[in-house]
Amino acid sequence: MLLDDAPASALRDGTARGPVRAGRVRVRRGTSVLALVVAGASLLTGCAPEPVDEAALTRWTAAHQTAEDGDEDVLGVLSGQVAARDRARDVDVGGGVSMTFARHAQITAVDFSCFGDGAMTGFVVTRSGSSSRSTGVDPVACAEGVHRVRLPATWRADVDEVSFTVGDSTRDSAWSLTVRGTGGA
Q1: Which of 6, 19, 21, 70 has its CA 20 to 30 A from that of 166?
Q2: Could you tell me where the beta strands, DSSP code E, fall in the chain?
Q3: What pTM was estimated for this model as a whole?
Q4: Is 1 exposed, middle or buried (0-12, 13-18, 19+ CB in 10 A)?
């Protein structure tokens, strides 16, 4: 339930879903779904203390997609954008981005990363049959790179669905959650 490189002080358990404004799901083995929660080309340019470098964001997104395309153990990638003005107090139960597997997946790892020099929190939810479990993700410094989300072994077995919801973001940003494992197709 902890992030490798984040302090364990602010873990939150629950089923809340956060204020994701745009999300994308990439699932291996021929299934690709684009999930737009709220459209808006100007998402990353509104009300930020400093404007987001759109070219750098495009490079960051492309680098993540390219790196994950060659990995056979990648079951899918959830990604989205978030504005700094969206706070956890605005959490909407219907928010978030998720992927559903055609058959049970055995998850070996969940890796989270975000763009820029801000910090971000969120919630990872796994569902197996009628049971779902969620864990809060401590504030992650985006500039520190990829962070491994630790889930207990029982949360990683026979998984039908994985979802991620942003909690707080200190800056306008983008995020990526890579789910690794076997099965799922």
Answers
A1: 70
A2: 22-27, 32-33, 74-82, 97-114, 119-128, 131-141, 147-149, 159-169, 173-183
A3: 0.71
A4: middle
> How many CA atoms are closer than 13 Å to the CA of 170, on its beta-carbon side?
11
Sign of CA dihedral 36, 38, 78, 135: negative
Provide the β-strand partners of residue 127: 132, 161
Residue by residue, pLDDT tens for the chain (185 residues) are: 333 332 222 222 232 233 333 455 555 443 333 322 222 333 444 444 577 888 998 899 888 777 777 788 999 999 888 888 766 544 444 468 999 999 999 999 999 999 999 999 999 999 999 999 988 888 999 999 999 999 999 899 999 999 999 888 999 899 999 999 999 87
Ramachandran angles phi, psi of 56, nearest 5°: -65, -40
Residues in the chain: 185
- Using DSSP, state whether 128 is helix, strand or coil: strand
Cβ-based neighbour number of residue 124 at 10 Å: 23
